Amino acid sequence: MTPRFRLGFLTHVQGRGKDLRQIYRNAQELFVVADELGFDVGWVAQHHVALGGGGLPSPWTFLAHAAARTRRIRLATAITVLPLEDPIRLAEDVSVVDTLSGGRVEIGVGSGGSEVEYAAFGRDVARKRELTTTGLDVLRKALANEEVGTAGFTIQPPAADFTGRIWQGVFSKPGAGHAAEAGSNLLLNRAAYGYEEPTDEVQRPWADAYSSAWNRPHAPRIGLSRFIFPAADRRTALAQIADDVHRAALRFGERGAFPSNVDIDEALRRFHSFYGHPDEIIEELRRERVLPVATDLITQFNPAVPEQDAAIRALELIATEIAPALGWRAAELQGA
């Protein structure tokens, strides 16, 4: 029986304290654990400045190390901030990691939006959509082993077939249509910023618009990122996530993405959070409006930064209790 969706996890490579070596080691350990649990895809997010969002500026270096420590899990970005990259150099990095990993790479790209990051790299944030579109066109050509940059130049190592392995993160219905027109898989964020309605109510029309606009011969993929943190009960879960989620919501309020001065309950709602006992999360996910049309469920703990033991236990509960109840099977069992 074919599983209904692929299961992934996303880390923003964050931690408490100043021991960055331990933070990076912990994030690598999550890839190893997820690989052993049968997760299909491990994702990392790129952040050049922390801004309370993440601690990894060089995702392909990180994923190369993860490739050496894992056996079968696919390795992906959600997202690489494309306007801040040279798309030809990016294609080279992607192809190198894909070669090292035995063809396990997928790449998610997007425009980002941090004015500080754009300024640091000498890019105009007002042109982020244009830069994303033009950069993606070059990236696609490079990964298709077409000439890029100058006559006679193609990347090395030559890329394998990346049809179906390029994703775009979007934040609107028109953006979903553009992703379909470009032939990209669709990445939907854990939260819909700037809307009062629940995230899944906002995003389901985006997913439907994407599917309607798709006109490529291969099947599209829809990746659904969701904040999912299982524990023994809701109180135990809240002890690990509440303060971080509330602080993050207040920061988002300062930037206008959320209302200002939200309380913790509203912060959890705005981040479309699933937390507590696995049985509670399963019932809530069964009511999720986008999940029925998703091909990939991408679980994450961000903006919370749980203790490492709690994070590992959460991955275990997702893989052994929550995802199987929703129709997923671990990779080792596929085809059995």
TrEMBL record:
Name of the protein in its database record: LLM class flavin-dependent oxidoreductase
GO molecular function, one term: oxidoreductase activity, acting on paired donors, with incorporation or reduction of molecular oxygen
SUPFAM superfamilies: Bacterial luciferase-like
Ranges where the Luciferase-like domain occurs: 9-294
Signal peptide extent: none
Naturally occurring in which organism (per UniProt): Amycolatopsis pithecellobii
Pfam families named in the record: Bac_luciferase
GO cellular component term of the entry, any: cytosol
